[in-house]
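Quick question, first post here. What does this chain look like in 3D?
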Amino acid sequence: MARARKFPRFIAPRLRESLADTPVVLIHGPRQSGKTTLARSVGEPRGYRYYSFDDDVARSAAETDPAGFVAELPRRAILDEVQRVPALFFGLKRAVDRDRVPGRFLLTGSANVLFVPRLADSLAGRMAILRLHPLAQSELAGKVPHFLDTLFAAGFPTATSDRLGPELAERIVAGGYPAALSRQTARRRRAWYLDYVETQVQRDVRDLAQIRALEAVPRLLALAAGYTARLINVTDLAAPFQLARQTVYDYVILLERVFLIERLPPWHTNRLSRLVKTPKVHVGDTGVACALLGLDAAQLYRDRATLGPMLETFVYQELKRQASWGDVPVSFHHFRDRDGFEVDLVLERGTQIAGIEVKAAATVTPADFRGLRKLREAANVRFTAGIVLYDGEITATFGDGLFAVAVRALWETT
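> Answer (accepted):
Ran it through. Tokens below.
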């Protein structure tokens, strides 16, 4: 079996900070994104003992007597895949309330516990939650990026760089999962992604809900991959299946809970009344999406109708990954109104708002800033910058806080 390559995880300093002042720290994110590796690399040198609930004996013991299981744990413990034993959260709460020492428990989970309020609420005020994504392009490059800081400072200087061209499609298709990236060929990476989806459905999705049509879930995810970066329409997603619209909606929520898809909410303001309030759907990783669609890099690069939305998802996921280790929270939205003005990504950091339009083309014209100008008008003094991110050679200003920026600046900004 090929060994996964080691890459820096830029969220590690935030994990260390959280362990220094919070009794329970949860790292959650998709299975195989590197949660266990991160937890053990940070925790074990500090004396943490490791327990995995993928182990049948550990899981059975914890389910049978959660309070007793917690009571027998050492002073510092890593509990891996904790979503598989939801009853354990209440035992952890009691243990922390008896001894509120920082860094008592380091948890990992492959399902989003925030979707189960009673679990998250049981540790409210006692638990820090960190989201670990698959690898960012900047982590693959081994360089801490400053793109978000540059964006919110509207500080893109005029510069030139080489186009990515076909390399951009290669990066999109490769995705960000460490185990997939350790494989030497695109064909083997695609096989890993397809096996990964099947495993997710058979383990985590089945654990979370009793689904009578489990075989429909991978097909639904593949359909969602073809809809990535579009407004979500459950009726369209339900059309190929002999399932009720509500059932398909419930499946979408399940896929979101295991981080395989994400809904991007609309941005809104009282200054505008004709806004579209439907969220967009984005697949959690473009490597998974391209594998499900049967696309290699050459096919994706030729298929411009698919390349555009896939690039938008790629940019969104890269920015979400970078934001996850930042000091100041960033929220993500999209903007669209009924007059046809739209912006692919709207980012809010504090009182600042920035917009990003994504293009797969090699050129930018003033018309490409149409939606960003509308966003600037709506956001008023909160608007900081708007950029068209494209696969070109020149980063340049278009005046009044608007810029054309080469897409490689996402991970090469210094």
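The first strand starts at residue 24 and ends at 28.
DSSP finds 19 helices and 15 strands in the chain.
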